[in-house]
Write a structure and sequence with these properties.
Layout: E1 2-5, E2 8-11, E3 16-19, E4 22-24, H1 28-40, E5 45-46, H2 47-55, H3 62-75, E6 86-89, E7 93-96, E8 101-104, E9 109-110, E10 126-132, E11 138-144, E12 150-153, H4 161-164, H5 170-178, E13 182-186, H6 203-217, E14 226-231, H7 234-244, E15 249-255, H8 268-281, H9 288-297, H10 303-316, H11 319-330, E16 345-350, H12 358-367, E17 371-376, H13 388-402
Parallel strand pairs: 12-13, 12-14, 14-15, 15-16, 16-17
Antiparallel strand pairs: 1-2, 1-8, 2-3, 3-4, 5-7, 6-7, 8-9, 10-11, 11-13
C-alpha cells in the first residue's frame, strides 16, 4: 500500500517515507503511527487506538504519546503550532488535516482519490507450527502470506517467532520480505519456541532442521526448489544444505555470512571473551555485555533498535543457552563444500562488520561457482531499518529474486 498526502509518499511495503524528492528516516514506531493515521483518514485516531496499534495495548505515558506525535509531525514537515498535516483533537486523539489517497500495490490500481481503506496494513498474519527434526528435536516454524513464490528465512541466533513479529528491528524486515511472497521462518534449535535443550547443536543438526522445515512446508511436491535468505550463521547452514540437496534450493541470498565460524578460523580468545560476556550480561539492560553487544552487532543503530535487540535476548534464550548456541556456531565450517553449491548466490556484506569479517563474505563469493558480490556501506552486522544500507540490501534482494 502506498499513501499520498501533501508532498509526502508513504510506501508501507517498502517501509519508506519520502517528502518531495527526499527520503526521510523515521523510527519504526513513528512510521507505524503515520501509517495508522493515513489508513483511518479522515477519521480520528483515538489515543486508545494508537496505543493498541503501536504498542500492542501496553501502558505508555502521555509523554511517550506526545513524543511520537511530535516526531511524526517533524518527519512530515509539520509542527505542533501549525498542525497543517497532523491535527490534535484535545483529550481524544489525532487525525490527518489533509486529504489522503491510497494505492494498493498488490492490486496495482489506484483508489481514484478515495479515502484509504479502513483495514490495517500489516505484515500478513503468521501461523506457527512445529516440525520434527531428524534427531527428534521440535523446531518451531511460521508461515505468512498465501500468494507468490516461497522465500525461506534461515534461523538466526536471536530469534523468537512470536516476538520477532513486533520487534522494531525485525518487523520492517519481515514486511519487506513478505511483500508478494509466502515467507517461512523458524527458530533454531536451542532458541525461541523450538526445543531449548536439544541433544546436539552442530552444523549437521542445523542442516537437518532446515531440511525438516522445507519438507513440511513444501508446495507442489517435496522436490520443488525454494529460495532462501540466510543471515550470519544461517548462511553456512543454507550452503551445506544446498551442497547436500541441490534439488531443494533455488537461489540463495547470504547476508554477512561466513564459511568458517570464529573458532574454526582460529579466533579462540575473541570467542571466549564473547561467551564470558554472554554468560554475565545476556538480556540485562545496562550491563557491560549490552554495551559491547551494541558496539559489535549494531554500532550504527538507534537507541530503540538496540533496546529491541536487548529485549529479544532474554526472550530468545537463556544466557547459558545463548552461550552454547554461540559456541556451536563458532565451530561451523563449510569451506570444503563451497564448490558443490550450484545454486545462484547473492553475497551481501557489511563493509565494517566486526562479527564476521567481510573477508569471509569475499571468500564465499570467490569460491561459490555461481555467486555475485555486493558490499553494504555500513558497520552494522545486524542491518537495521534506520540504516541506509537496509534499503540497499533489500532492493538488491528483490532484484536478485525477480530475475
Amino acid at each position: 500500500m502506498i499513501y499520498r498526502f501533501a508532498d509526502v509518499e508513504l510506501d508501507v511495503a517498502r517501509h519508506r517515507l519520502t517528502r518531495g524528492d527526499a527520503d526521510v528516516h523515521v523510527e519504526p514506531q513513528v512510521f507505524d503511527l503515520i501509517t495508522a493515521l493515513a489508513r483511518v483518514a479522515p477519521n480520528l485516531l483515538s489515543y486508545d487506538a494508537m496505543i493498541a496499534e503501536i504498542w500492542g495495548g501496553r501502558i505508555v505515558s502521555d509523554a511517550t504519546l506526545s513524543a511520537r506525535v511530535s516526531a511524526a509531525r517533524t518527519a512530515l514537515g509539520d509542527n505542533g503550532r501549525a498542525q497543517a498535516i497532523i491535527r490534535t483533537v484535545p483529550r481524544r486523539g489525532v487525525q490527518m488535516a489533509v486529504p489522503v489517497t491510497g494505492m494498493d500495490t498488490g492490486m496495482g490500481t489506484d483508489t481514484g482519490g478515495q479515502t484509504a481503506p479502513q483495514t490495517g496494513v500489516q505484515v500478513p498474519r503468521q501461523v506457527i507450527r512445529f516440525a520434527r527434526s531428524q534427531d527428534g528435536t521440535s523446531i518451531a516454524y511460521a508461515t505468512s502470506g498465501d500468494e507468490g513464490p516461497t522465500l525461506v528465512r534461515g534461523g538466526h541466533w536471536i530469534s523468537h517467532l512470536e516476538h520477532d513479529w513486533d520487534n522494531p528491528v525485525w518487523r520492517p524486515l519481515l514486511t519487506r520480505l513478505n511483500a508478494g511472497r509466502r515467507l517461512i521462518r523458524f527458530d533454531p534449535r536451542g532458541s525461541g519456541l523450538s526445543d531449548r535443550t536439544p541433544p546436539s547443536m552442530g552444523l549437521d543438526a542445523s542442516v537437518a532442521d532446515l531440511h525438516a522445515v522445507l519438507d513440511v512446508t513444501a508446495q507442489g511436491g517435496s522436490q520443488t526448489p525454494v529460495d532462501v535468505i540466510a543471515v550470519s550463521q544461517s548462511a553456512p547452514v543454507a550452503l551445506a544444505h544446498a551442497a547436500r540437496y541441490p534439488e531443494r534450493i533455488g537461489r540463495l541470498i547470504l547476508v554477512n555470512g561466513f564459511a568458517q565460524g570464529s573458532l574454526a578460523r582460529g579466533d579462540i580468545a575473541g570467542t571466549d571473551t564473547l561467551l564470558s560476556m554472554i554468560r554475565a550480561g545476556w538480556g540485562v539492560p545496562g550491563s557491560p555485555f549490552v554495551k559491547a553487544f551494541a558496539t559489535l552487532f549494531l554500532p550504527q543503530g538507534t537507541a530503540e533498535e538496540v533496546a529491541g535487540l536487548v529485549e529479544m535476548q532474554g526472550l530468545s534464550a537463556s544466557a547459558e543457552g545463548a552461550a552454547i548456541l554461540r559456541e556451536a556456531i563458532g565451530r561451523f565450517d563449510v569451506s570444503d563444500l563451497l564448490d558443490r553449491v550450484q545454486a545462484p548466490v547473492l553475497v551481501l556484506s557489511s563493509e565494517g562488520d566486526a562479527i564476521h569479517p567481510s573477508d569471509q563474505s569475499r571468500l564465499l563469493a570467490r569460491r561459490l561457482p555461481n555467486a555475485e558480490f555486493q558490499s553494504l556501506p555500513t558497520a552494522n552486522h545486524v542491518v537495521a531499518p534506520s540504516d541506509p544500507a537496509f534499503d540497499i540490501m533489500l532492493d538488491a534482494t528483490d532484484a536478485f529474486l525477480a530475475r
